[in-house]
């Protein structure tokens, strides 16, 4: 039995979609958005943009998907404004909540999951008070 070498770009869209569906949607968008036109088209599918989960669960704790502010800033400044109208649900951890919610408008958002949120942040969010003006962290 011989082996053949198949490159990533040789795979059909259907196979790539199966692979990407097994990954976190936020990580798919962050990793593949802007690579080339073909991947841009694939990752902007509603499969990857309708529900964005910015949290990971480990035991009984929830953690932000992005390990550094630079990654969160890129997502908020470049990616969210391009897909904002496709987003229907956001799952957010308290450390990224303000940045994500203030990055753009979400006209089709109907669901919001909040994790590790403190009382003061919840009060500001649900009473209509504005968040602080410093939305994005320095890199």
From TrEMBL:
Residues 5-52 form the F-box domain. It holds the Pfam family F-box. It comes from the Eukaryota. SUPFAM superfamilies: F-box domain. This is F-box domain-containing protein.
């Amino acid at each position: 039995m011989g082996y053949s070498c198949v490159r990533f770009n040789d795979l059909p869209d259907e196979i790539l979609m199966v692979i990407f569906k097994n990954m976190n949607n936020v990580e798919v968008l962050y990793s593949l958005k802007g690579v080339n036109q073909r991947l841009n088209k694939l990752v902007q599918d509603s499969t990857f943009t309708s529900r964005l989960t910015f949290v990971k669960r480990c035991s009984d704790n929830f953690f932000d998907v992005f390990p550094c502010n630079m990654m969160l800033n890129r997502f908020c400044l470049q990616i969210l404004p391009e897909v904002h109208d496709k987003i229907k649900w956001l799952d957010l951890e308290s450390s990224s909540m303000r940045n994500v919610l203030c990055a753009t408008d979400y006209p089709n958002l109907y669901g919001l999951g909040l994790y590790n949120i403190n009382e003061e942040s919840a009060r500001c969010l649900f009473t209509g008070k504005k968040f602080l003006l410093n939305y994005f962290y320095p890199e």
